[in-house]
Amino acid sequence: MIVASLLLATITIGASPGARASDDGTIGVRLMEVTDSLRLDPRARQYLIDHLEPGATIDRRVEVTNNGDEPRRIVVYPGAATVGKGHFSFGESHAVNELTTWASVDRSVLEVAAHSTDTVTVRVTVPTDASPGEHYGVIWAETASSANGGTGVQLVNRVGIRVYLDIGPGGPAPSAFTMSDIVARRMDDGRPAMITTVHNTGGRALDITGELRLADGPGGLQAGPFDARLGTTVAPGESDPVTVFLDPLVPAGPWKATITLRSGLVENTLAARIRFPDRPDTQTGPVRERLLPFLPLDGPAAIALVTGTGALVAALALLAGRAAHLRHTRHGRHARRAGDGPAQE
Question: How many domains in the chain?
């Protein structure tokens, strides 16, 4: 086991736009233990991830922190979650699913002093008839704050640790994904963006992170890395887009774009020549590099690599040169034959 830390955003439930709590009500949670076989997986340092056989039981310690200036009553409980359409989505309040019926905490209510911590143990007991596959949930820590100003509105803050449990005999289902072509886009606000689609070809949900690097740009420019937009969770068998937003000052290109995406220990890289469109709210596919053969005036045949906006000019120049070469050759051949009689076809 190793100790790992986690800081998740606070979810505020049922607050009116103008309501403010008498203190910030900030609480935090962190997972204190990681399955030994997953100790190198960065996702396992953030989330409760494991593979369990039917009938198995695990215990995991979770630290709960009160960052406020007042003592707080904090309720800890398991909640339902789903994965689909590119998102890890949690249910409202104490929503249940199959996983929540397996999970429990040794203490569901904590009285935590200001700027202090406490610890609970989460137990997951998988029944022998549990359905196979990956199950999703959240271990929530929740606290209520009173509102001032006489509004009567109560703020409820909760933070949580995602749970990904793969159920079945033998080893865990594999994690794997592929990536589609890179698409360059100009957003409606003028920002350039790059989009690729991730196809989850494995048996586990993927939490995608990564970065984009640009090279061989105008004048030899390089740019990046630019972080992929976080929050993309791809369910097994599904495909979802991953977007990288760039600075508006990045030139249109063309560029050699290289994007690297990862989920846990699984990583893939895709590269292509791209050019960002000039008009807002439009997109283009990769710029395809073409190999154009030509014959120089002297020497062996060569290959010219023509790419992007210079392709037409370069091609015309090459054709003009070849045409001049052919005219010169034909003129010489006819001149030599003139003294020997009629030219032969």
Answer: 3
* Range from 34-38, 185-189, 309-313 carrying the lowest mean pLDDT: 309-313
pTM: 0.72
Nearest to 226 by CA among 201, 208, 246, 251: 246
Residue 198 · residue 209 · CB < 8 Å: no
Range(s) of the domain holding residue 206: 177-288
Cβ atoms of residues 213 and 243 within 8 Å: no
| Boundary residue ending a domain (120, 139, 167) | 167
CATH code at position 239: 2.60.40.10
Closest CA to 134 of 180, 81, 187: 81
Spell out the residues 6+ positions from residue 243 whose beta carbon is closer than 8 angstroms to its own: 193, 194, 195, 228, 229
Residue type, 305: L
Asked if residues 49 and 60 have their Cβ atoms less than 8 Å apart, the reply is no
Q: Looking at the predicted structure, is the pLDDT value of residue 22 above 50?
A: no
Q: Is the domain of 233 the same as that of 325?
A: no
Co-location of 76 and 222 in the same domain: no
| Any domain includes 243 | yes
